[in-house]
């Protein structure tokens, strides 16, 4: 059984969430132009165009992950408001502070999370 998070820890994680959200939002803004459909330049070789399209598909996948993470961050903020933050949504145990420092948007404890991943 883990200890409940202290008010100071919650405040720290609240700040982490805000910082993470700002960083990821900026990342999405920065890569917005690059994610637009590839313009086929007449002077570009076929190979460099394929390179560009390949890079872009990676960029798009990363952007999807980033926007999914932003959704999770917003949900975590809601849980903070409702004072349910830091509790596992599956088993209701306290999620360790260390885990929340690494993933402030986590809604499950490590045990439940890995149970999920393995099927
Ligand atoms: Zn759990």
Automatic annotation (TrEMBL):
Residues 3-30 form a coiled coil. It holds the Pfam family zf-dskA_traR. GO terms for molecular function: zinc ion binding. Keywords: Coiled coil, Metal-binding, Zinc, Zinc-finger. The keyword Lipid metabolism does not apply. It comes from the Bacteria. Residues 83-118 form the Zinc finger DksA/TraR C4-type domain. The keyword Electron transport does not apply. A zinc finger (dksA C4-type) spans 88-112. SUPFAM superfamilies: Glucocorticoid receptor-like (DNA-binding domain) (SSF57716). This is TraR/DksA C4-type zinc finger protein. The lineage of its organism: Bacteria, Pseudomonadati, Pseudomonadota, Gammaproteobacteria, SAR86 cluster.
């Amino acid at each position: 059984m883990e200890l409940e998070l202290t008010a100071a820890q919650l405040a720290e994680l609240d700040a982490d969430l805000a910082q993470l959200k700002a960083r990821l939002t900026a990342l999405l803004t920065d890569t917005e132009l690059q994610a637009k459909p590839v313009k086929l330049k007449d002077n570009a070789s076929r190979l460099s165009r394929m390179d560009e399209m390949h890079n872009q598909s990676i960029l798009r996948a990363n952007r999807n992950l980033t926007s999914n993470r932003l959704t999770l961050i917003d949900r975590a903020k809601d849980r903070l408001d409702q004072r349910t933050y830091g509790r596992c949504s599956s088993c209701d145990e306290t999620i360790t502070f260390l885990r929340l420092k690494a993933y402030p948007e986590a809604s499950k404890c490590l045990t439940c999370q890995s149970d999920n991943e393995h099927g």
